[in-house]
Amino acid sequence: MMEQAHEMAKTFNPSLESFSPKGFETLWPTMPKEAMEMVFGKGLSKDGLDAKTRLLLTLAGMTMQGAQAETPFRMTVRHLIEAGASREEIAETIAQMSMFAGIPAMTRAMEMAKDVMAENEDDQK
């Protein structure tokens, strides 16, 4: 079935032969904090959650699902950093989910988050 889908994708667009979802990470830059606040934060409800809190909840949900969607997960961590979340807040959110999602999901999520945070440190040097 996978081979059939791959052949169909190549027929529609030959460049899809080497498609990788990780490519989306380079196409979609990290949104500025102000844009996130408008779209994900107080723009939705002036008395509601801020963008950082909404993104922490998103990270928790993605961890609960087993951190399966790697590209969106990594982008959420990047956006959290831009929204002002500390490494500790990100790690604590993921760790809290171990009680509900299990250690394997938490471990996968933590590894991906650490990779993104390390990339962020390299970019700041």
Describe this entry's structure for a reader.
This protein has eight helices and no strands. The chain has 125 residues and is mainly α. Helix 4 (51-64) packs antiparallel against helix 5, helix 4 packs parallel to helix 6 and helix 6 runs antiparallel to helix 8. The longest helix has 22 residues, at 103-124. It is globular.
Give a topology summary:
Elements: H1 2-12, H2 23-27, H3 33-40, H4 51-64, H5 70-82, H6 87-96, H7 98-101, H8 103-124
Work out the strand percent: under 5%
Q: What level of helicity do the residues show?
A: 55-70%
Major beta-sheet overview: none
Secondary structure class reads mainly alpha
List keywords for this structure.
mainly alpha; 125 residues
Précis, in short:
The chain is an all-alpha fold.
